[in-house]
Design goal:
This protein has eight helices and no strands. It has 187 residues and is an all-alpha fold. The chain has one domain (5-18, 25-180).
């Protein structure tokens, strides 16, 4: 199956948009783009796979290579795109049930990213260990706090913000406008 030039263009747009949002947010400073709490706003683009299909799935996967911007570890640059591909692909497959799809996507991102960041960040780094959020009334092992923190972050960016973005983009007027400009959507 060959990709049409429209599909390649859409893929490039999503890859660029993901990378730009990620890099701008990271360059603005603050620990909410990377580290034990990752409110990575670019992840709100993942649910749009339900509307745009494979070009978008590939775009947000390629865009995740922008993790190289703040170079934590080669694993971060490799695992991030794989996780984005899995999450966007799962959301695409569950497209009829948008909220379920977005919620599942948040867990597909949050859990594995939480685990591998725990290993990357905490080995020999007591400063990062102190930055992991503590959850009142719950004593969690450090790895579980990482996973929970990253999953909550993903729920906010993917299942909340991403879902709202998806619903806004799914409105008939928006769909018709996109189609009038030559874009194909799955809705």
């Amino acid at each position: 199956m060959g990709m049409r030039s429209k599909d390649v263009s859409l893929m490039a747009i999503f890859a660029s948009l993901y990378a730009v949002i990620n890099i701008v947010q990271t360059s603005m400073g603050g620990p909410i783009t990377y580290g034990p709490v990752q409110l990575r706003l670019a992840d709100c683009l993942l649910p749009l796979s339900i509307l745009f299909g494979w070009p978008q799935i590939l775009g947000v996967s390629i865009g995740a290579f922008s993790n190289a911007y703040y170079w934590l570890d080669p694993a971060d640059v490799i695992i991030g795109p794989i996780v984005n591909f899995a999450a966007a692909g799962a959301m695409y497959l569950l497209g009829k049930r948008k909220l379920v799809a977005c919620s599942l996507g948040a867990f597909i991102v949050g859990i594995p990213i939480g685990f591998y960041l725990y290993y990357l960040y905490t080995i020999g780094n007591p400063i990062i260990q102190q930055q992991v959020p503590r959850f009142p009334g719950v004593e969690l092992p450090l790895w579980a706090a990482f996973v929970l923190s990253l999953t909550i972050s993903s729920i906010i960016t993917i299942a909340a913000i991403g879902y709202v973005l998806l619903k806004a983009m799914s409105k008939p007027a928006v769909i018709e406008s996109l189609k009038a400009k030559g874009l194909e959507t799955l809705s």
